[in-house]
Amino acid sequence: MPDMNHNTPLSPRPLHHLSTGAGRRVLTHAQLRAHGVSAAKASEQCRPGGPWLQLLPGVVLLHPGPPTSEERLHAVLMYAARERTVGVPVQPGTESPPASAYGEAMITGPAALTLHGFSSTPPLPSLEAFDVLVPRLRRLRSTGCARIVRTPELPVPEQVTGLPVAPVPRALADAVAGLQDAGTVRRLLTEAVRGGFCDPAAVVRELTAAKLLNRPHVVDAVDSLLAEGRTLAESRLYRMVREHGLPDPCWNVDLRLPGGPHLGGLDAYWPEHAVAVELDTRAPRPGRRPDDEAEWSEYARKREHLERLGITVVHITPRKLRDAMEQQAAVVRTALIASADRDPSAYVVVLPR
């Protein structure tokens, strides 16, 4: 895409220079005035049958159309960037977004996912409108190919093909908000995880913030997403043990006290060292429903009980396995070595899960 600084005033130039020398371009009325083109002259050029097309309010396509997907994306961002606000809060713990020719506006929803490289979202030419994320207090309305999405907290945009685009988890939440088909939602969430675009926890955080987890078809898709995430994490755990030279554990086991109660399931267990690995694939959903609170309480209770019995439990998240596998292997190796200096653990029965 052409690199065009839309904030820099342009030297006044003849009208024919814009029409012929620049090729296909999109400019705002303010930029046209910087070129010496008055509002009246711009309106004249945009009349039916004229050489230009008013693509959106205040945004002009410098040829009669139809616009390309690139031009529509630029036009939507230009439209949303008009009268940009200052001092808009961003998500806690993030830096302020970098200065952009489009102010705080960024592409989100299905178009953003397509730009990120998703294959399960429609190609850009088939989308009638592009979602554009703006601060909540902006006085804008959806019109033409621009669909306005407001938010009280802006994420830090990513630059994709020179355009500000919402991060995948936020773009997913905005796309899911407009979908009613469970199959489509499931495909999007699955591709997000399987394709390595983001981890399940990040997706669920955004869906929770968007208050989408009260929709049954979204909850069903999230359950499939978490199952997909666990499968990938288990595969990486097997690879970590193999590639980093750890001793073979007992995989996927249940522990019980002799003649006593069930202690819980573990993803890997080294009986001679009393060291266990548990994949922490829970998504952060406390408070959404009573079952979630119960799950979290049970999780903490199991860990405390095993540690009282002298069993070291190493918790590993899917993200750490993906991004820092060598470091996680070192943590497990350290726990195995340290077992020689600990008091013997209680005897437990190891059963296949």
Write the layout of secondary structure elements.
Blueprint lengths: L14 H7 L4 E3 H6 L4 H7 L7 E4 L2 E3 L7 H13 L24 E3 H8 L13 E6 L10 E6 L6 E3 L2 E3 L2 H10 L4 H13 L5 H10 L6 H28 L6 E7 L5 E9 L4 E5 L10 H19 L3 E5 L1 H6 L1 H14 L10 E4 L1
Parallel strand pairs: 5-6, 11-12
Antiparallel strand pairs: 1-3, 2-3, 4-5, 7-8, 9-10, 9-13, 10-11
Helix pairs in contact: 5-6, 6-7, 6-8, 7-9
Report on the structure:
With 353 residues, the protein is an alpha+beta fold. The chain folds into 3 domains: 15-67, no CATH class; 84-178, no CATH class; 231-352, VSR Endonuclease (Endonuclease, Chain A, 3-Layer(aba) Sandwich), CATH 3.40.960. It is 40% helix and 17% strand. It is built from 12 helices and 13 strands. It has helices at residues 15-21, 29-34, 39-45, 69-81, 109-116, 168-177, 182-194, 200-209, 216-243, 290-308, 318-323, 325-338; strands spanning 26-28, 53-56, 59-61, 106-108, 130-135, 146-151, 158-160, 163-165, 250-256, 262-270, 275-279, 312-316, 349-352. The strands form 4 sheets. Strands 12-11-10-9-13 form a 5-stranded mixed sheet, with helices on both faces. It has a 3-stranded antiparallel sheet with strand order 1-3-2, sandwiched between helices. Helix 5 (109-116) packs antiparallel against helix 6 (168-177) and helix 6 (168-177) packs antiparallel against helix 7. The longest helix is centred in the middle third of the chain and has 28 residues, at 216-243. The protein starts with 14 loop residues before the first helix and ends with a strand. The model is unreliable at 1-14, 19-23, 84-99 and 285-290 (pLDDT under 50).
